[in-house]
C-alpha cells in the first residue's frame, strides 16, 4: 500500500503523510546504521552457513554488492550486508567487521564468474566452498564459441555488432589473413571477465605461446589480453590513433560550420528586415562560408599530395580564413607521417615526444585529449614499430561480417549466423 492509495481512500495529504512517516513513524532518524548506510550496511546476526553474493544497481547505474543468507529464501532476516560498489577491498573491509567465528562457520557461497567476487569470498569466508552459479556457465556456453586449434603467435582482438547493436568480441589469427582457420573465439559482449573466462578454456601452453596481439584503445581489451595472453606484446592499432587526430580536426571544422550557419541566419534576418534580397558572400572558388566548411570535410582526411586541383584551391581558402584549422590539420598530418616513416622504435619515440611538445604549444583542447591518450598508452603505441603490426586483419574480418549481415538483411537467428561464420572462417575447407 502506498501513500497515494491512502490519499485516494482516506482523503489525506500523501506528501505530508510520507514526510511524517519518514521523520517520525518509521524510526529512520534513530536507525543505528543511518550515518553510514549510503556506504555500507551490516547485519551480522543474519549470517548463516549458506550465503549468496551478487551485485545490483540501485539508481543511475550505481552498483552495490549484496550478501544474503540463502536459507532465508529472500524473506525476513535474509540480508547480511550491502556495500556501495564492487571493489573487492571495500567489500572485504565491511565483511571483516563480522566476528571471525561466524565467518569461518560459513560452509558455502554461491557467486558469478567475477574475479572480484571470488577474491571477496576467498578472503572474507576462507573456509567456505565457492560455487559458481550454473546459469552463468550455461549463458556463457550459449554466448561463446571457441576454436583453440586456430590459435597462433599473432592475434587480433576487436568487437563488432551482429544485430540490434549487440556487441560481440572476436579474436582472430592474423596469420590466417581472414580466411579459413582464422577464427579463434567469439564471445557475446565486451565485458572483460566474460571474455577472459572463455579464453582461459584454451590450454595455458597455447596462450603463453602468443607473441603479439593487436587491439584498439579499449581498457577492457587491454585487460583481456594482459590476463589471457600474459606473454604477448600488446600493440595498439595506429589507425585508431590517427582517427583520434582526424576527429579532432573535424570537430574544429564542425564548430566553425555551426558558427557560419548562425552568421548566415543573422544576415538573412537582417536583409529581411531591410526588405532586401539576401546575397551571401562567395569566395574565389564560388563557395559560400557555409559551403566551404561543408565541402572541406573529405580533403581534411587526406594528405595534401593527394588533393585534386579543386581541393587545393578550397584548402588554401579554408586555411587562410581559419588558421586554427590549418594548425590542427598540420598536427594531424605530422602524426600520420610519424607512422608512415619506416623507422626504428627509438627514433619514433623521439618523433612522438616532439609531436607531443607541439600539441602542448598549440593549446588546442581536442589535441590535448589525444596527447593524454598518448601518455597513457605510450609503450603500446610504440610497439607498432617492432613489426609494424596493425589491427587491419581484425577490421577486415569485421567488414566481412557486416557485409554478410547486410546480404542476409539482418540476423534473425544468432546461433545459426555464428554457425555459418564458423563454417567459413574457423574450419579448414
What can you see in these coordinates?
The chain is an alpha/beta fold and 429 residues long. The protein folds into three domains: 31-132, Nucleotidyltransferase, domain 5; 141-237 and 397-425, Nucleotidyltransferase, domain 5, CATH 3.30.420.10; 242-387, no CATH class. 50% of the residues lie in helices and 16% in strands. The chain is built from 19 helices and twelve strands. The strands form two sheets. Strands 1-4-3-2-5-6 form a six-stranded mixed beta sheet. The protein is extended. The model has no long low-confidence stretch (mean pLDDT 87).
What attributes characterize this protein structure?
Nucleotidyltransferase, domain 5; 429 residues; 12 strands
- CA-to-CA gap between the ends? 65 Å
Estimated share of beta-strand residues? 15-25%
Biggest sheet, strands in spatial order? 1-4-3-2-5-6
Low-confidence stretches: none
Summarize the amount of helix as a percent range: 40-55%
The secondary structure category is alpha/beta
Nearest-integer average pLDDT: 87
For the sheet with most strands, the description reads: 6 strands, mixed
**Inertia-based shape:** extended
The overall number of domains is 3
**What is the count of helical runs?**
19
Report the radius of gyration as a whole number of Å: 30 Å
How many runs of DSSP E, i.e. beta strands? 12
Write a compact overview of the structure shown:
The chain has helices at residues 3-10, 14-25, 88-95, 100-104, 115-124, 134-142, 192-199, 204-208, 219-228, 238-273, 289-295, 309-321, 323-340, 345-362, 365-376, 378-382, 384-387, 392-407, 414-425; strands at residues 40-42, 50-57, 63-69, 79-84, 108-111, 129-132, 144-146, 154-163, 166-173, 183-188, 212-215, 233-236. It is an alpha/beta fold.
